[in-house]
Amino acid sequence: MRPLLFAAFAAAVLAGCAGTSAVVAPAEPWSYAARNSRSPNVDLKAAIDRLLPDSLFQIANAAVLIVSLDREETLYAFNPRRLFHPASNEKLFTATAALSALGPDYELATVFTIDTISGTIGVQGRGDPLLSTADIDSIADSLAPLIPRREAWRLQCDVSYFDDLYLGEGWTWDAEPAAYAAPVTSLMLNGNTITVSVEPGTHPGELSLVKTDPITAYVEIENSALTVADTFPPPPSLEISRKWRDRSNTITVSGSIYDSVRFRQATMSLWQPDRYAAMVIAERLTMRGIPVGEIVMDTVALPGEEVYRYAHRVDSAVTYMLKESDNLSAEALLKVVGAEREGTPGTTAAGRRFLHEYLSRLGIDTLSVSLTDGSGVSRYNLTNAEVILALLEAVRADTALFGPVYHGLPIAGVDGTLERRMRETAAEGNLRAKTGTLSGVSALSGYVRTRDGELLGFAMLMQHYATRASRYRAVQDRIGQFLAEFTRRYY
Length: 491
Known about the structure:
Elements: H1 2-18, H2 32-36, E1 37-38, H3 42-49, H4 54-57, E2 61-68, E3 73-78, H5 90-102, E4 107-115, E5 120-125, H6 133-143, E6 153-158, E7 193-199, E8 209-213, E9 220-223, E10 226-228, E11 239-242, E12 250-254, E13 256-258, E14 264-269, H7 273-287, E15 292-298, E16 305-313, H8 314-324, H9 327-342, H10 348-361, H11 385-397, H12 399-408, E17 432-438, E18 441-449, E19 455-463, H13 469-485
Parallel strand pairs: 5-6, 6-15, 9-12, 10-13
Antiparallel strand pairs: 1-3, 2-3, 2-19, 4-5, 4-16, 7-8, 7-14, 11-12, 17-18, 18-19
């Protein structure tokens, strides 16, 4: 009887409702952002809430914090204390630690010695992540006149400045041979990577042509990729890799390349890249009439006297790290901080201890966050928008830090990782921020000036999505544009 009674009751209620003239207003659309955000200005709150659509954030997580640095006022806060993976926003912490501990003009040097008695040329790497093949050529040009001629020299490399933990804590095992996860060593070259170019042969059926930059005997090439004409079905695609599972520096090129293609290119990490740098140094010296026979990697002091050093400044490394979101630079800088603060070998843990001390001086509770590596590659990193804003505020208040960090950040629509974002908007040439990307993670934090010239600091953290990251970057861009157009006259 109960189901029948309930059905009869429901029918009566519905019939009664149908017979009345009252109109029930539709419920306001449910908005997670609107129910959880706060702002001192109702209209401003509503405007930013609308930029965080439920279609994206009912299942994904987001945090947005916007602060007026000129007025020391929080304009908008949404989940500011919830922990997120910062991805490459971690580099903001590394940049601050390096500049604070070392100073912008600190030199990241590569030192050369000569011992004529033992016939040894010594080289010590001290954490310069910007050393390039062009730099090695310049070094070889300068060294050649200083080195006496003899049948063969021995090249001894001191790699004791860093420890032998080449990868960051929590990095995934299968990141090799991706360039973004290059091993970290105290003697580095070309970001510890090599670039492989593949060109089609003259005629279909011929092997492709493979070149490396730089050309070096440190790598071997196994090439089975064929030149093909346009056909159907399509032939196997071109694959460029390295035998990384074997801890080998054998470059493999397989599949096929169309004869109509100019070239294909890939950049990848190398195993034991300090040996790679040593090999290229030896090859470049030999080309200038200074033959090098034996190459020795060691951790003992170099013989002989220092005759030459080549260096890049910390502020240059910080700018490159921030603009290009370079992971190797970030990890190297944190280890340099460790070496200079606690002695060699420099370790990530020692650099991290200084960073925690610095953040504690700012009043940040470092026990509530996890700052594990220097680059943000590790998913052990956890922080929140509130901590990032506290860092941005501290940087703004410190004139020695603000210039190098502010000018080192990518500029919307102009350069770095923001070169193609927010073009032809009020944010172009104005907004400066650090991007952050991992699988399922996107972040953007930095500075922007409003239409009135007011300086704002912001942090936007988004994660736990399985769709395209571009949809979440688009949300960040719309908020960035809104802030660049913001004026107190309307809010």
